[in-house]
From TrEMBL:
One of its GO terms (biological process) is glyceraldehyde-3-phosphate biosynthetic process. It is found in: Cytoplasm. It comes from Ureibacillus sinduriensis BLB-1 = JCM 15800. The active site is at residues 95, 167. Homodimer. InterPro entries: Aldolase_TIM (IPR013785), TIM_sf (IPR035990), TrioseP_Isoase_bac/euk (IPR022896), Triosephosphate_isomerase (IPR000652), Triosephosphate_isomerase_AS (IPR020861). It is an enzyme of class 5 (isomerase). This is Triosephosphate isomerase. CDD domains: TIM. It catalyses: D-glyceraldehyde 3-phosphate = dihydroxyacetone phosphate. Substrate binds at residues 9-11, 173, 213, 234-235. Pathway: Carbohydrate degradation; glycolysis; D-glyceraldehyde 3-phosphate from glycerone phosphate: step 1/1; Carbohydrate biosynthesis; gluconeogenesis. Belongs to the triosephosphate isomerase family.
């Protein structure tokens, strides 16, 4: 049985005071980590404070991106070892917004996954198709190639530490959710790809989230599906009540 993982992706939202207030208020209310992994992926500038606030609670804090080098002349970037040095637990990698607006490639995602693991940070690896790709029946081809590239060159043991997020781009922030059956079919395909690369045991244990307009009203139906083990949530993770409702419905 795979433990559900619900990760909020705050993207470029919230001021410092709002982030602190949210985290202080939810930290004692999140369900036990024995039942569900609760994560907030916040803007990098807030991470040290939020990690302190969430310390010794069942809430984990993650970043939304990082560089793949541990140090170097990369003005404006944040490194995996810097994130590890403030005890960040997770990092979202290869989000479609980073691929689209910041030219993030499959190759860079693969290097970042390696760097995250080397620094003890759990990577949440994103994949997903555009509307045009879906309409051209290219969804499976697209996510298979993204996942094959991101997972290249690891051991099954390393893959066990990863989380995959399937986020159809046309469902992000649009209010359009993939149907639970469609989302499950693609997550099942991703599991097949992992099986082809790393074997059945690894494929059965890796957690695959769905993301794209997930809300308290639709999360239960999604999580009932065989291959959906959690959610990566944008808009609905910005509100405390709705974030807690997502977690409560996942346990
Ligand atoms: P929404 O939940 O706002 O559609 O965002 C999904 C997403 O991109 C999470 O990473």
């Amino acid at each position: 049985m795979r433990k559900p993982i619900i990760a909020g992706n705050w993207k470029m939202f919230k001021t410092f005071d709002e982030a602190v207030e949210f985290t202080e208020s939810v930290r004692e209310k999140v369900p036990s980590e024995e039942k569900v992994d609760a994560v907030i992926c916040a803007p990098a500038i807030f991470l040290p404070t939020l990690v302190d606030i969430a310390m010794e609670t069942d809430l984990a804090i993650g970043a939304q991106n990082m560089h793949y080098e541990n140090e170097g002349a990369f003005t404006g970037e944040i490194s995996p070892s810097q994130l590890a040095s403030i005890n960040v637990d997770y990092v979202i990698l290869g989000h479609s917004e980073r691929r689209e607006y910041f030219n993030e490639t499959d190759e860079a995602v693969n290097k970042k996954v390696r760097a995250a693991l080397a620094n003890g940070i759990v990577p949440i690896i994103c994949c997903g198709e555009t509307l045009e790709e879906r309409e051209a029946q290219k969804t499976e081809e697209k996510v298979s190639s993204q996942i094959t590239a991101a997972l290249e060159g690891f051991t099954p043991e390393e893959v066990n530490h990863m989380v995959i997020a399937y986020e159809p781009i046309w469902a992000i922030g649009t209010g359009k959710t993939a149907t639970a059956d469609d989302a499950n079919a693609v997550c099942g395909k991703i599991r097949e790809v992992v099986e082809g690369l790393y074997g059945k045991e690894t494929a059965e244990s890796i957690r695959i989230q769905y993301g794209g307009s997930v809300k308290p009203e639709n999360i239960e139906e999604l999580l009932l599906k065989e291959h959906i083990d959690g959610a990566l949530v944008g808009g609905a993770s910005l509100d405390q009540e709705s974030y807690l409702a997502l977690l409560n419905k996942a346990q």
